[in-house]
Amino acid sequence: MSAAYRADHRGKLFNFFWPFTRYLVTMLAVTFGAMYLLLFNRFRVIGRSNVPNRPNTLLLSNHQSMLDSFAIGIGAYYPQGWWKPYLLPWNPAASENFYRTPILAWIGDQLKCIPVRPGRRDLKALHRSMEALREATMILFPEGTRSRDGEVKRGRPGAGLMILGTKATVVPVAIDGMRDVMPIGTPIPRPFKRITVSYGEPFDYSAYLGRPRSKETAQELVDEIMEAIRRQLDEIRTGADQDDVRQRIASDVTEKPGTGEGT
């Protein structure tokens, strides 16, 4: 259940109990989250079989809301996280959002968040994240912040440095619909929305391993992965548009006999 990563901003007693408390809190939160997604929204998962059930797996995704990690983690690892705790993903998280009060900081730690200081150029957080990833799985948003228009933005090189440093299995993830569930500035999620999470095939970055582990190499790698995520997002939206057309056609066919028109 325990990973090598320790919360060095906490004491020894906290770290002793932490593997158990974070497991219980995370799984309870994820279970309620799964119920919300499945019962009160149209939650669709594509490509779950592309996600390996092993440590050192990095799920790289676009970012639309503060609840993205829940949807991505649930789609990939629920319910097997109950009996395979090492699959519960770590989440590098902005300290200004998740650690601004002692209560939020405690909750963030229990949900396996790794605090990242404002500005995101946090080498200490990068090394902590690499340490955690080697022993477990992780969800990471290379854009660094939520997209205000829902489109995929350019990723930051830190994600590439993490990949090159850990040689993790990288799964591109595209998520759509979460902006409607929890827009920026909205404190309560909205029900009855369509949410889709698409997991692509593990990304082959072997061509980058023989190159210098530099910021430039990392940026090129991230740019290529973000392009794959962008294509997945386009496929989600194209499929959703086609579903809407089919629903309108079916509705027209159903309503036509009641129009009073003869044949």
Offer a few descriptive terms.
263 residues; alpha/beta; two-stranded parallel sheet; 7 strands; 47% helix
- What is the typical, i.e. mean, pLDDT? 90
| Overall 3D form | globular
Estimated share of beta-strand residues: 5-15%
Terminal CA distance reads: 68 Å
Q: Major sheet: size, sense and barrel closure?
A: 5 strands, mixed
Rg estimate, integer Å: 20 Å
Number of E strands? 7
Pick out the low-confidence regions: none
Write down the secondary-structure element order. HEEHEHHEHEHEHEHH
Class of secondary structure makeup: alpha/beta
The portion of residues assigned to helices is 40-55%
Number of helices: 9
Biggest β-sheet: strands ordered side by side in the sheet: 1-7-6-2-5
Present the secondary structure layout:
Blueprint: H1 12-40, E1 42-46, E2 57-61, H2 68-77, E3 91-94, H3 95-98, H4 102-110, E4 113-116, H5 123-135, E5 137-140, H6 157-166, E6 169-176, H7 178-181, E7 194-199, H8 206-209, H9 215-255
Parallel strand pairs: 1-7, 2-5, 2-6, 3-4
Antiparallel strand pairs: 6-7
Helix pairs in contact: 1-2, 5-6, 6-9
